[in-house]
Amino acid sequence: MTSEVSHFDPRAIHERLDGAVLQRAADGHARLRLRLPLDMRLHLDESLEPAPRGADGSVETLVRGGAWRLARILRGDVELVRARVLAGEVFVVAGQSNSANWGEERLFSTDERVRAFDGQGWCAADDPLPGVQDDSRGGSPWPVAGAILARELGCGIGFASCGHGGTSIRAWQREGAPACDGGSARLQDALVDRIRALGGARGVLWHQGEADADVGMPREEYLRLFEQLRSQVAEASGAAPAWWIARATFVPGRAPALLAGVRSAQVELATRRGLHAGPDTDALLGPLRHSVDGIHFSRAGLVAHGEAWAAAILQILRAG
Description:
alpha/beta, three-stranded mixed beta sheet, 28% helix, 24% strand
């Protein structure tokens, strides 16, 4: 993670750092890099030795392993900021309602290492996850997925959720529709902003497709629009994270032939370089779906959804 401080505000820095999950490198460690005024120092835990300052004026320290560490910013003998940080795996979540908080019941994190980032600060990954662009207030699969990943990988897990219910892949293009009625922010802007703010993420978890399958979008059109989105995000963020692509086309009452174009595109995308298969959420049916609307997930469905996301992620991370 990299953060630049121009007008130092201890409260803002504490909010930005405290409880943060920092994307780890292949060696399992993460780097915390800050641009601080010259009269300030960064210490890790209770070490008396400050983090070294680079030629560009930034200070950087290594956050080792999967245990909480203490980042301390001092001026002289005065401690200005004291914040917990954790190395781990960080994911940006995007797409439509089943990526956001539209589940029938809220779920809660069972592991304090599972965290959520809203673009400004971190909190426990309890539903409703902050940061979504539609203000949805129900449940999501991420508390369950995060707990499994934290247990299996032995590290922190961070989610930055920025989905919006009912959105077509067209709305995620640079020239797409506004994120909110009457607003000026666009969906892709939030996705790019999350990647930039995190300073590093393992990947984007993409759960979208029902809106486009519902109108019979052809396979080639979905492929073109997704690759355009991926290219635009990489260009605007200066990063090229991996993407996990869920198979997400189920709409109650629609014939499989209508949905087939988008589903076929999602299967194809998962074979391309830098893209991975997410879960097949079209298979989560019956009592796993919302008891009223039939398209979102019940409590049991959210648990199954979270388990499926964790399995898809672990398959790739364990393969190296």
